[in-house]
Design a protein that fits this description.
alpha+beta, Immunoglobulin-like, 2 domains, globular
């Protein structure tokens, strides 16, 4: 009986104290003009529309919003849009992050326990600082989009839509502190001599050049065959990268100790690691210029590709060549370095077909085709990559051409170069 009375007394005491406890959480945030993050902003112009963007650092976001929002998976991106045209535009925030947070959702993830009035104040700050998506003619709007946390690189497209028009797109790429990328980044360009660069002016010339490429990329010795070279991209990097970022492709982290340890933990616990390192492969005397991956549920499963700037241009546009494959597992190598390596899906054409579908969905591909070059190998007589993993293929390369404007499916031109063989042979133990 006495115990019950004591429990009831404690309950009412805590109930009485709740208002006082909630008032203990003090919330304050810094004004935008007090932070220096706007000095790093990038500005892009299309016609008479100007878009400025910047990604605050972890510490800057903490000062701006009064909480370490990155610890809850929130990464605010500041956007300013100046519309000097005679038509209105709508900002499609899904182009920045297809799974962005609403202002109230982002604030709620950062609420104090028993925050009371402080949490209400926080809600107000997050709402007031969110960007308004409608931009009238002659108007300027600015504010934050609350995106998911990315590491190392924040790449996104700001898409503006207007009734009855194609709209406008602006691509932004920010390198973030605390991340060692596998590849040198978008600013890197190989220093080819003029005499080394092949200028291709017709599709026939391009096709012949592609067919003459090596069947694979190589190991560091430049001789050992690695994965098949089954991918060619044509276009400006600022047109190619938005297609990948919109479809969720992420950069790879360099293979330093911390990254390798995260890879091992993800392997052991079956978790996702969106930036898992790549093993280096080589072409033109250097390792990959760009390394991108699209992780699936666990580290064992991902689509990944390596790209190199080629010493060639098509009608003045850059050409990137490389390889695409799908990882379906991780295994220990039995060596200290590298400690682990991925197991690729031997049906490498499936990864090529996946990439074609994925990038077409980005609405940045205006022309595509298949070209000879890799060379045919069957399931009964597969080739081996450097890790001794078998693969088989119809021997064709995917060629994709990119533009800076959204392209509908019925606008895409399919080149009449090569037709893929009947891929049903991949599921049989006989030659086609």
């Amino acid at each position: 009986m006495k115990t019950a009375k004591k429990e009831k007394a404690v309950f009412f005491f805590l109930l009485f104290c709740l208002p006082f406890l909630s008032s203990c959480a003090q919330y304050s945030s810094m004004e935008l003009y007090q932070s220096g993050f706007l000095k790093r902003a990038q500005t892009k112009t299309n016609g008479m529309v100007q878009v400025t963007a910047v990604v605050p650092t972890r510490e800057e976001s903490a000062r701006l919003f009064g909480r370490f929002v990155s610890e809850t998976g929130v990464q605010p991106v500041w956007i300013r849009i100046r519309n000097n045209e005679q038509v209105p535009y709508w900002l499609f925030a899904v182009s920045i992050d297809p799974m962005y947070f609403s202002p109230h959702e982002a604030a709620r993830k950062n609420h104090f326990f028993l925050g009371g009035f402080s949490n209400e104040k926080m809600d107000s700050v997050f709402r007031k600082r969110a960007i308004y998506p409608y931009i009238s003619p002659g108007e300027t709007v600015a504010g934050f989009v609350y995106t998911r946390l990315d590491q190392g690189v924040k790449a996104f497209t700001v898409d503006l839509k207007s009734p009855g028009r194609k709209g406008k797109s602006f691509f932004f790429y920010f390198e973030l502190p605390g991340f060692q990328a596998d590849s040198p980044g978008l600013e890197f360009r190989p220093k080819y001599k003029d005499a080394e660069v092949v200028n291709l002016e017709s599709l026939a010339q391009l096709r012949k050049w592609i067919e003459g490429l090596p069947p694979s990329v190589f190991g560091k010795d430049g001789v050992s065959h690695a994965d098949p070279m089954n991918l060619v991209l044509v276009g400006r990097v600022d047109d190619i990268m938005p297609a990948f970022t919109m479809r969720g492709w992420k950069p790879a982290e360099s293979a330093h100790f911390s990254a390798v340890w995260k890879t091992i933990k993800s392997f052991v616990f079956g978790s996702q690691y969106r930036y898992s390192p790549f093993s280096p492969q080589y072409l033109y005397g250097r390792k990959q210029d760009l390394a991108l991956q699209k992780a699936r549920e666990t580290i064992n499963e991902r689509n990944h590709l390596r790209l190199w700037f080629a010493p060639a241009r098509f009608k003045g546009l850059p050409i990137l060549v490389g390889q695409i494959s799908r990882d379906i597992g991780v295994k220990l190598t039995g060596r200290i370095s590298p400690l682990t390596t991925h197991v690729i899906d031997p049906e490498v054409d499936e990864a090529r077909w996946y990439l074609e579908q994925d990038l077409v969905m980005s609405q940045r591909v205006y022309m595509l085709g298949l070209c000879k070059g890799v060379g045919y190998s069957s399931k009964l007589h597969p080739r081996l990559n450097m890790q001794g993993e078998p693969y088989y293929t119809d021997g064709l390369r995917l060629v994709l051409f990119f533009t800076d404007r959204p392209i509908s499916f019925d606008e895409i031109r399919v080149l009449d170069w090569e037709t893929p063989k009947d891929v049903r042979y991949l599921h049989k133990d006989v030659e086609p």
